[in-house]
Design a protein that fits this description.
Shape: globular
CATH topology of the largest domain: Pseudouridine synthase
CATH architecture of the largest domain: 2-Layer Sandwich
CATH class of the largest domain: Alpha Beta
Largest sheet: 10 strands, mixed
Number of strands: 15
Order of helices and strands: HHEEEEEHEHEEEEEEHEEHE
Structural class: alpha+beta
Strand content: 25-35%
Helix content: 10-25%
């Protein structure tokens, strides 16, 4: 049944429809059915009640946003480091979601979650581009691109040490670290999910390297875990890298610099960019002053 509804109602994601089925909002021949795997024989009368966007307890907060692009369906923001994306334990207020609700109230309830409008995420201390959808149609359209790996995400990462080659591809499954459940780690295939990242050396320094990284999948902490696995962890990453940072700045050097995707209603790809924030620019200038070696 969920497959049939997903094909008949492409404006809703399959996950959203499954949740509606489980909530008892589907009737077949007048009787409620709560199993997504219910087999349809043909000729049934199916009635689906889709509720209006669910209001949440989130209170909009007027937090300044660096808006890179906006139209009636999409909001693309250059997120600063230190801003949490959505409410979670210890972060009930002051998140990107709270700011987005104040700027675009129509995103309330989009997705049927407490994370209205979110299509993907960034870590708290990772700066750069993040996309939000203003309605269910846009969210469905954008999520499909992320799931099919059509979206090209490009990050800039300064790492401790140097990668083994000037460019490469890391294919290593990621799952919960069995020794510390709050962390992620490269794990056996049976214990994690497939994860692929590609990298290219941009600039080499005596003890560091600036890389361009393209994650082809979207696992939690993927770039940070993969680069640590490669032997060149992100500079300033106290979780997966050195406990004592090699450079004097208070966060890891990772920035979502470029995003290429199709917007709802458009055929051609668009690329959006966010420059390095001042703290990361300063770190690079100081390294270059020492005497960089070009790749």
């Amino acid at each position: 049944m969920d497959k049939f509804l997903a094909a008949a109602l492409p404006q809703h994601s399959r996950a959203r429809l499954q949740a509606l089925i489980k909530a008892g909002r589907v009737r077949i021949n007048g009787k409620p059915v709560q199993k997504s795997g219910h087999v349809l024989l043909g000729g049934e009368s199916i009635h689906l009640r889709v509720p209006t966007a669910e209001p949440t307890d989130l209170v909009p907060e007027h937090i300044p946003l660096d808006i890179v692009f906006e139209n009636e369906e999409v909001l693309i923001v250059n997120k600063p480091a230190g801003l949490v994306v959505h409410p979670a334990a210890g972060h009930a207020h002051g998140t990107l979601v709270h700011a987005a609700l104040a700027h675009a109230p129509q995103i309330e309830g989009v997705g049927g979650e407490l994370r209205p409008g979110l299509v993907h995420r960034l870590d708290k201390d990772t700066s750069g581009l993040i996309v939000l959808a203003k309605n269910e149609r846009a969210q469905r359209f954008l999520q499909a691109q992320f799931q099919s790996r059509e979206v090209r995400k490009t990050y800039l990462a300064l790492v401790d040490g140097h990668p083994p080659t000037s460019s490469g591809r890391i294919e290593a499954p990621i799952g919960r670290d069995p020794r510390e459940r709050k962390r992620m780690a490269v794990v056996p295939v049976t214990k994690g999910r497939a994860a692929v990242s590609e990298y290219r050396l941009i600039e080499r320094f005596p003890n560091h390297a600036l890389l361009e990284v393209n994650p082809l999948t979207g696992r939690t902490h993927q770039i940070r875990v993969h680069l640590a696995f490669l032997g060149c962890s992100v500079a300033g990453d106290r979780v997966y890298g050195k406990r004592r940072p090699s450079l004097p700045f208070p966060r890891h050097f990772l920035h979502a610099a470029r995003l290429t995707l199709r917007l709802p209603g458009e055929e051609d790809l668009r690329t959006f960019e966010a420059p390095l924030p001042p703290d990361l620019q300063k770190a690079l200038m100081e390294l270059r002053a020492i005497g960089p070696l070009r790749a």
